[in-house]
Amino acid sequence: MLAGTPSPVSVEESYRRCAALARSHYENFTVASRFLPAELRRHLCAIYAFCRTVDDLGDEYAGDRLRALDLWEQDLRRCYGGTPHHPYLTALRETIARFAIPEEPFLRLIEANRMDQRISRYRTYGDLARYCENSANPVGRLVLYVCGYRDERRQLLADATCTALQLTNFWQDVARDHAAGRIYLPLEDMERFGYTEGDLDRHVVNDAFRELMAFQVGRTRTLFQRGGELLGTLQGRTRLAVALFSAGGLRVLELIERRGYDVLSDRPVLSGRARLLLAAKTLVGLGAAGRA
């Protein structure tokens, strides 16, 4: 529902629909959010439903995607003065009011998906990092708002983690993104290591590709390390949930390394069992750190 009249669905039903959408997608965001207090999870589900819908409009919508994103933005703005039409946004309006969340993070996420309609290559790493400022970093800031943190220092540390998570997703999905006509590997890095678009077209995994991917994995791990400082500023279940975001991303980087950086033959992913083991390991690790 992108236009028309406001949905007759109640606020509680809207939250239930957001939760159902979150449960249907076994992703790092939704897995980690399960460790947060129950009173916060419904609000994170509303944020997730917004993010998921924006991505679907930018990646899968069969019609005019820019028009669809414009309509979604119009409906978002009704959360700040009016009655939104979409059930997900009915819930989100309540979450926005509860935590006094500004418009900017939501608008940046929409803008990232507009960029995906116009840009299919990134010349430099700086260009890619600027894309992540819209596509990933707002998510971390939204999570912090819901968890009661609004200061700039924590937001900047969350930015490092979220950019790292976005980059990890790019390195997982080199083949999938290429099939969709997009290359997120910076072109300057491809040139530096002697790997061409023609090689990528043929799914060539050679020394040049392995060196290229090793370089990307290394710079991404550095971002995770920088963002890791955020954990020391958080308390309770929020700390655990944020730790799980990073732990999941770092584990994917390990999987990429273990397969010799071949992300073209098969997509490296964590199984459900692996995610549960990782959660247990993270919980034990945080407990040990707290006793140190």
Could you give a quick summary of the protein structure above?
With 292 residues, the protein is mainly alpha-helical.
Secondary structure layout:
Blueprint: H1 11-23, H2 28-33, H3 38-59, H4 65-78, H5 87-99, H6 104-118, H7 125-135, H8 137-146, H9 152-172, H10 174-179, H11 187-193, H12 197-201, H13 207-227, H14 236-258, H15 272-291
Describe the structure.
It is globular and about 55 Å long. Helix content is 71%, strand content 0%. The chain contains 15 helices and no strands.
Order of helices and strands: HHHHHHHHHHHHHHH
* Strand content range: under 5%
* Helical content band: over 70%
Alpha carbon gyration radius = 19 Å
Could you give the distance between the termini? Answer: 52 Å
Largest sheet: none
- Kindly state the mean pLDDT as a whole number? 89
* Unreliable sequence segments: 282-292
Any descriptors?
globular, 15 helices, 292 residues, 0% strand, mainly alpha
